[in-house]
Amino acid sequence: GQSLEQPSEVTAVEGAIVQINCTYQTSGFYGLSWYQQHDGGAPTFLSYNALDGLEETGRFSSFLSRSDSYGYLLLQELQMKDSASYFCAVRAHAGNMLTFGGGTRLMVKP
Amino acid sequence: ETGVTQTPRHLVMGMTNKKSLKCEQHLGHNAMYWYKQSAKKPLELMFVYSLEERVENNSVPSRFSPECPNSSHLFLHLHTLQPEDSALYLCASSQLGDRVYEQYFGPGTRLTVT
After folding, report:
1. Which of B74, B99, B101 to mutate to test the interface with A (most CBs of A within 10 A)?
2. Which SS3 state, helix, strand or coil, does residue B27 take?
3. Nearest alpha-carbon partner for B72 in B9, B26, B5
4. Are B100 and A4 within 8 A, CB to CB?
5. How much is the pLDDT for B1?
6. Rg for chain A, CA atoms, rounded
7. Nearest CA to A84 among A4, A3, A9, A6?
8. Cβ(B35)–Cβ(B87) under 8 Å?
9. What percent of chain A has pLDDT over 90?
10. How far is Cα of residue A77 from the mean position of the Cα atoms in its chain?
11. B101·A33 Cβ contact <8 A
């Protein structure tokens, strides 16, 4: 089977930088995605890493180390609107399925 | 309408009722998904439809029955549900192949089974 581990909750202050980690154990690996979900909203796609290294998209960056089965989402210049749940998801094989982690609830305080 | 839409947004049903959830995507995608989101649990994939082929999570009970009449529409038929089936049911769509990692979700149907 597949399993992904994320911290359940992270708190940070406005303007700070926060890193949300994700470790995975899967039978195969094609890539790691990150999604954001605000309370009462739908998950929205943030980023994807298939290869090792850092991918940057504005204030958000995502990192992958396939040898360590580990990735993280880095959020810079935190804003109050970044308060949400963040999910990592692994594509474990060539099919059309993603396996999601339990999500990390980020609370940004003034 | 744009993106992925779902109806109804909220549904309360008794354990003996039969109801259906509807999903429609306006993105030209060729794969559609049903997910279940319960409190304090990971998002759980229930069914995938792509090119009229269905893949299902073997742990999903038979009281959930999907239907995908075409690449834009997806239904989830519900019958004789249990209280533990109360959850947020999310529909998503994507392109096949390498773009499967970028899924677009609808707003969900909040289901309460009484």
Report:
1. B101
2. coil
3. B26
4. no
5. 60
6. 13
7. A9
8. no
9. 85
10. 17
11. yes
